[in-house]
Amino acid sequence: MNHNASTATARLASVLVTGQRPSRLQRHGRYTPESIRHPGKMLPAIAATVIEAFTRPGDLVVDPMCGIGTTLVEAIHLGRDAAGVEYEPDFVHLTVGNLRHAHAQGAAGTPQLVCGDARNIATLYRALEGRAALVLTSPPYGSHTHGHIRSGRDNGGGKIDKRHHRYSTDRGNLAHQPLPGLLDAFGRILAGSATLLRPGGLIAITVRPIRVKGELIDLPGQVIDTAQGHGLTLVGRYAALLAGLRDGGLVNRASFFQMLETRRARDRGIPACATAHEDLLLFQRASDLPEAAR
Fold this sequence. Notes:
The protein is about 30% helix and about 25% strand. The chain is α/β, with parallel strands linked by helices. The chain has one domain (about 5-294): Rossmann fold (3-Layer(aba) Sandwich).
C-alpha cells in the first residue's frame, strides 16, 4: 500500500485517545512483569493505533530503538511482521520474552531482533532495504526518567524509594549524550531507517518536550529540524494522549515525580504543566512526495 502526504494525514483524528487506561493496565497480561524495568516505554495503545492506521496485515514495521519491544509486540499482534534494534542486552532479553509471550497468546506476525547500535541499522538490516511500510520509534529523554516509586505507605513508613529510572550504566548508550549529540545520532538513525522504507513508507516518531536544568526544551521541534536535515518531510502531526478522557475532561496519569516537579516549578513562578500527551510526528522521504509537496 503506497501512501502520499494527503492519505497519510487523513487516517487519524488530530487527537488520539490512547490514554484511556493507565500504562500498567495496557501492559498487564500482554507483556512480561519484568518489562517494568525499562524507564521509558512507549504506550502500547499509541503503537497499536499508529500501526493499525498506516499498515496492513503482512506489512513490515521497524523500530530502530525498540526498548522492551512495544512496537514489535503490537505489530505482531496485529498480524504485521516486525524488526527491531536495541542497544542494551538486558532490554533485548526483555523483548525476546515479550515476543515469546505474544506468540503464546496467538500473535501471528514474524519478528526479527538485533542487539546493536541503531546508527548502523542500514547495515544490520541490509536485507530489509526497501521493504518497511512503517518505522515507529521514540528517542530517549536523557540518562534517566521519573521511573517508579515505593512511598512510605508502601514500605512501612520509610523514605521514598525510586527505582527503574535509569536507561543504562553504559556510557555508549545514546541516553547519556548531551542533547546536541543525541539529536545528531538520532538523525543518523532516521537516515539509516529511511533506507528500509518501501516507496511511500512512513517514519513515525513519538516525542514530547523535556526540561533540562529547569528549562523547557521543544524536543518535538528539534526532532523535526533534525529529520528535515536528513531528507525527511513532515507530513502529519498529532497529539497522542497519555491522559484519559472522561466527561469532557482529562484524567491525569502523570507520575508522582512529574507532579512533584510541576508543583515545585509553579512555586518558583514557572507556569509548568504535567505532560498529558506526546507529539506523534509523521515523515516521508522527500523523494516519495509529489514534486509540488517537496
